[in-house]
């Protein structure tokens, strides 16, 4: 295998010829520049240089093999160059944010002090690098939908029943025929390794230990195979969240790959076809720049104004999606590609819930992508309530799931009373694995199980199927902000 | 009676053999470990040691006699051991929280400066040991129901009538046939001695002086007999709040005991069968630990993670309840056990109000346990309003009481206009006796009487029976937070 | 005239014999003790002493003549005693609150900087002695009704009409046949001299200059005659707000007195028969005591607990009212006593508005006493809206006024669109005269006139009678708190 | 041309003879005093003096020629006087506010950091002189309508459609037949030069570069001709916002002038006939006076009280308007004056929308003048919703526009779904040109285009005409204040 010096690599930094170094290997990425989901500029910024630190945490290990033709794997750095890189890495002064994180990690609370979902979120936000926090936490525009997703649950109150036998209360149910210990699944979300070196594997292992189901994102930071291999047994069900590539063949290849790996369902995501406006994420580089400088967050207007619009971490992930999917074309195509059950993720109005059910989809997720795409999309629990009122037949035609804004066992139970079969949490599990790895995931699932079981007993039910619409009421007032006394 | 040394006792600290010292007496509690309502670990933590300080404030004086067989009352400490314990107690450095309370007690306001219910609560919270405050004040999950219980009253406005003769306005009424000076009773709540050495006796004596009725909790910190003996006269009515033990015979024994002691009614509690999530209570040990250390409330993650989940003071009180009670089985059983009137406490929906009335119960309490059990249970005044609208026949079949969120005489009057016969306050009286003992209880009742009388005169009524539904309106807006100008 | 020494007076300080000194004169008030509206203790606190400073600001000049029989006007202090009192007065150290007011008065803003009603209130509150501020500003219980009175207006929006000729827009109208320059009157409120030495006279003169009408309170701090004499001309209309004494003859005497003095209407107040709970007022003595001491507002609990409940300034004013008035008895009685038009002030529900109209009253005031009596009485503009919807015939049978919560010309116009003939402001004029005397009253009236005229032009109307219900809409949302940008 | 000395000019400072100096020229403005829109006092304050600094930023360059007869252009200052003025100007100590602005300008953020409309507003407010900020930002009374204009949008949520082909999504549409790149126009607002020396020209050039349409205010700070000349091509459409002078001939002259200059439509403003109460603007001189003094904002009450009521910058602009316009008289008159399409700006109720449509107007603007005139005028998007529900025929009879409260692309799309053809922004573009000149205007338009395009794709539409009422729902709750996470 040929070797290169840093100087040699440094000459290739344009669209005409662009090389990068990753883990001491040299790649010619010229042909890939315009196929990169994040656009060419993201790569060109590292043209002719070592890109390892930026690349590794957000790409699965098989990404280079999948995307860069073998002949473009040019070779390795020579020894002197390796030593030079290594020295540079050691000499690098830690950023203020890195130092902040180091301090935060030292005072991380004992896991037993985390007693609810919000504790987990708050703890993780302190421990995460700012950019990772910004990517995980950000939502669209003014975060109205993000905030209302959670707040909507607070308008639903219970009609608990008393004097009913509840001993032996059982929280288990099924999702697409697979057993789950509680009616909660881990919703697919990108880039778990931003928060923890083991990334998605923490979720897989935690799911196994607690008997719940994980959905894996197209944008996972580990390869689909690595995640599948982390399962506790071959029976452990995992699902796949699909961003359909605009090229049907590329898309089909991805589906066949995960089917072969043992994934049990395809969750086709239809609410995130184009990059959205997530301002916390967009502003993160500005924030860090100012934080390092220790100066006023505003620049001297004489400074050179850059041309490129900065899109944040999120920007690069939603590219090359098929923006022309239709019920007529896409559902038959996917049926022809796989035998796996198909679930539409991102249903945001009653009419589309009906269309999905009529199209024979095995399930739908009432979801607005956690408030990260179109602001002022209805909160899922409000949509669920509308489906219940206007088209209750949908519940008998397809499994209905919701995600977005769930923080408590009571939220889960409200959704189930209204007809949801399962409830997904995304960010919460990301935060749990970021802060405590696999143990955090297990702990979070157990908190939810405790809350769900208590709620069922208090409602007077012994099993999930006894949760009925008569047990919830949408009140006509808005509770004040809760205090966790 | 045999005597023991501290060293001898210290050898018995496991489930195989567990001894404890209480008031210089030695008990073998091995057989009782798993019957303890709070679970065995709570006792094992004191295995082989003196448990007096932890035990006394939260157990009635007859608890040892009732629960520990006579032959397990082993004997006494010898003189040297007593002196050693006594010296250890004297040498014990006061905790920061104890020192804080000492300062607070010195600046306790004159009772005459307490002019409303909220003054009493705020004052008591400053005077109480943190753990007691946390137990009294805590509510479920995010305290939504706790907060909304009170806030719901603010959506009910009056239609006061003018030009009606109101001289000689009389606030008295009856509850289960017993006369009461105002339509307010002291609702049963556990562990009054956490707040004041005389505990429930303050309530009994204050109730006597002001002509109101006390309900005594199954979890009272004095024995049912001690409380009954504190009555001002044998005619003073007291009621009993019952947690039904899962063992029918144990439960029946308890009912027969209080009937013999002269209690006049059984309030069967049906909304608190299993321990709930009260986070202020749960976090109290963490809070105090950090407060003593004077350090950051977060631990170094290297610290040993404990295995036991800490449940707070509340955890131990709701155990061994009968979680399989039903209308069909339990009501006839209790009728067969006692001649006392039966009231169901913890009705949370219209349907169950109807069932209770049809089951022939003499009364029902619309209550969600002060927001301490299932969060998002409807505020009782909202439920009362629903019963009034949907099933007004309930009011003619059974006496309807409510508790939860009452802070003002106007709250009481709103409930009575809607059909409630009486209104219960729990925490408020706990706070009053904690801060000022019996005088506080008397003062609180007089504040309420003054407010109720003024409200009746201002509504244009001379007697309780003139309060009618037409005098209240549920408005469609939410008042802003009130200011006590 | 006999003279007395301080020592002689000092011997008479009990209910058996009680003398007081007022303006160097000696009165035997023994017989009057239990007729005093504020109760005997208020006088006994000054028994045998000089009561001038406490007495003068809150009693009209004819009060001694009216209430103390001539033979009880015992005589005067001798010269030495007068000098002693005078010296004591001079030597008296100013209280902290007096010093605070002195500073505040020095930085009083120019009147031209007061550009709206709220400016006036905020300015006056800084300038007033604490006790006066507390009496003026206080409201019942938690001030819900006080706050909602104003907030309710914010739910009414306009349907302004454009392309209508509005030149020569005229804001004048009539009240009980008397011309007024704007549809706003000065509502009766007690004790104007707490805020300014000229007291109610400021209101009378300001009303004259701006062509508006003043209602005088039974509890005015000047005599009814002094106020009548301050009129700019004999034609200037003034109205009388009546608290009916429980003794019919005493009440009739008062009515005949004001009729003879030229008052033009009787506003019988029916919403304030008994003293209410105004906590700011009640706590004022505590506040001042602590402020002077410069210590923690909490007392050592060892301090002697006083027996008397302190009621604040308000307490003494609502005593001896007739609490047994009825439509059947009282209206005919008052008709038999006077020829003046009768207006019922304090109507708080639709049913009573109808009864008053049917009883032939010339007017009604939808009022809850500015939120100072029963908390949770409906905001008057909400009640007005209900009358408009449920019983619009009332508007054709009697003149309907409202008071409570008016802050802007737009508030006035909303009330007029809904059917009110006039709108009253009480506190606002008290604040204006307190801060700037007569000039403040004139300025306030002109601010309102400017706002009303602008509002009429913007609604497309030229005269008051063109304001119609179609021009307002009650919206189903609650505006956020306004910002005065 | 004759020359004058400062001393000579200084003699003419009364209504009898009033001269002023502007750009070293001397004008006799005696005859014009009472024709001045802001009233005579504004000029008299500069009588006999140099008025250049106050005059130039708020008057178009042709104002002197239009308003002062040629013979009153008396001549020029002599050389010595010019030097004296110039020296005085140089010697003038900068005000605190000028110094504050100088600092603020130095830390102006890079334009690329401005990522939404609110960023632009916040940035501009820091950079603007206080008086200019106060004039731009101020709203009527308590700003209820100003605040609710924006807040109302938050009650409208989307029903996004998925699985619809959206590639090639096109944001362009037409307004009165003129092409526009996005459904947003620049609404006319006065005095752009308060914020930037190039004033309205920044808007004209920015509009050209981004393909949007500008409406020019009657009170523009540049002449209508200067603005027309700044167009990028003769085809660039510009519209004219008309305040109709009470004198028909003066009004007609103005209309004919702009028609001749190539303006393409007349927007007759009917909601701002008389000066309103804008308190931020009114208080600006007080604020600055206190800021300079560095003292307490309150004056010693001994200070001389001025007689003149200060009206702020806004006061002078709304004078001499025709307050007697009617549908019957004014529409035919304007039709007889011009061939341009007529749009009524300031429709505030459904009834007037219908009247305008029936009167044959080519368009209407549902507007309340940005909340600057009558407080409690309905938010335009609420009015739009009412028109849609009650009189949908209006949309087929005339083009309907709205302005007021638009901050996001989602706001624009909600209005279009409900039937609006275009949406206007006023303040936002003023802020943009104030902070960054033409580049700011371009940047703002591009932000809106990005947000609108993303919103359309997310709603599942490819073109503006696919936006339909079914895509929005007015929810019955009020979202919490948004956080821009």
From TrEMBL, chains A, B, C, D:
| Database matches in Pfam families | Cyt-b5, FMN_dh
Give all residue intervals belonging to the FMN hydroxy acid dehydrogenase domain: 109-477
Where does the UniProt entry say this protein principally localizes? mitochondrion
E.C. number(s) listed in UniProt = 1.1.2.3
The UniProt GO MF terms for this protein read: heme binding; L-lactate dehydrogenase (cytochrome) activity; metal ion binding
- Spell out the reaction equation it catalyses: (S)-lactate + 2 Fe(III)-[cytochrome c] = 2 Fe(II)-[cytochrome c] + pyruvate + 2 H(+)
Locations listed in the record: Mitochondrion intermembrane space
Kindly state the subunit structure of this protein: Homotetramer.
Q: What is this protein called?
A: L-lactate dehydrogenase (cytochrome)
Q: Which organism is it from?
A: Paxillus rubicundulus Ve08.2h10
Instruction: Recite the lineage of the species.
Output: Eukaryota, Fungi, Dikarya, Basidiomycota, Agaricomycotina
């Amino acid at each position: 295998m040929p070797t290169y010096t840093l100087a040699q690599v440094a000459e290739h930094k344009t669209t005409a010829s662009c090389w990068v170094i990753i883990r001491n290997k040299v790649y010619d990425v010229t042909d890939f520049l315009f196929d990169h989901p994040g656009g060419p500029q993201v790569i060109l910024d590292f043209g002719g240089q070592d890109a390892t630190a930026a690349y590794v945490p957000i790409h699965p290990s098989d990404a280079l093999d999948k995307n860069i033709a073998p002949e473009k794997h040019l070779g390795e750095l020579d020894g002197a160059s390796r030593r030079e890189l290594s020295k540079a890495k050691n000499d690098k002064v830690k950023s203020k944010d890195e130092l902040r994180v180091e301090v935060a990690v030292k005072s991380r609370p004992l896991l037993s002090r985390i007693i609810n979902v919000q504790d987990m979120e708050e703890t993780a936000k302190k421990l995460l690098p700012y950019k990772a926090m910004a990517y995980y936490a950000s939502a669209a525009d003014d975060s109205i939908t993000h905030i209302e997703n959670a707040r909507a649950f607070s308008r639903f109150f219970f009609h608990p029943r008393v004097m009913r036998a509840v001993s032996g209360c059982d929280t288990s149910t099924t999702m697409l025929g697979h057993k789950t210990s509680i009616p909660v699944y881990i919703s697919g979300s990108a880039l778990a390794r931003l928060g923890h070196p083991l990334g998605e594997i923490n979720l897989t292992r935690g799911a196994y230990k607690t008997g719940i189901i994980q959905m894996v994102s197209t944008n996972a930071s580990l390869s689909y195979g690595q995640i599948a291999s982390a399962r506790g047994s071959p029976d452990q069900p995992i699902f796949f969240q699909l961003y359909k590539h605009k090229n049907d063949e590329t898309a089909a290849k991805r589906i066949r790959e995960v089917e072969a790996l043992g994934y049990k369902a395809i969750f086709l995501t239809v609410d995130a076809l184009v990059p959205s406006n997530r301002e916390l994420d967009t502003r993160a580089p500005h924030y860090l720049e100012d934080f390092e400088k220790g100066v006023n967050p505003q620049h001297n207007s004489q400074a050179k104004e850059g041309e490129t619009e900065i899109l944040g971490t999120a920007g690069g992930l939603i590219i090359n999606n098929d923006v022309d999917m239709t019920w007529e074309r896409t559902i038959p195509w996917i049926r022809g590609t796989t035998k796996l059950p198909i679930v539409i993720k991102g249903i945001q109005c009653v009419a589309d819930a009906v269309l999905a059910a009529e199209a024979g989809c095995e399930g739908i997720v009432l979801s607005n992508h956690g408030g990260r795409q179109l602001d002022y999309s209805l909160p899922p629990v409000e949509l669920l309530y509308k489906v219940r009122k206007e088209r209750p037949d949908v519940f008998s035609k397809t499994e209905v799931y919701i995600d977005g804004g769930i923080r408590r066992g009571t939220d889960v139970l409200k959704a189930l009373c209204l007809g949801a079969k399962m409830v997904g949490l995304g960010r919460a599990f990301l935060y749990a694995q970021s802060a405590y790895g696999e143990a955090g995931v297990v702990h979070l699932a157990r908190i939810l199980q405790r809350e769900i079981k208590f709620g069922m007993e208090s409602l007077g039910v012994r099993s999930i199927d006894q949760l009925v619409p008569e047990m919830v009421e949408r009140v006509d007032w808005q509770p004040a902000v809760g205090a966790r006394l």
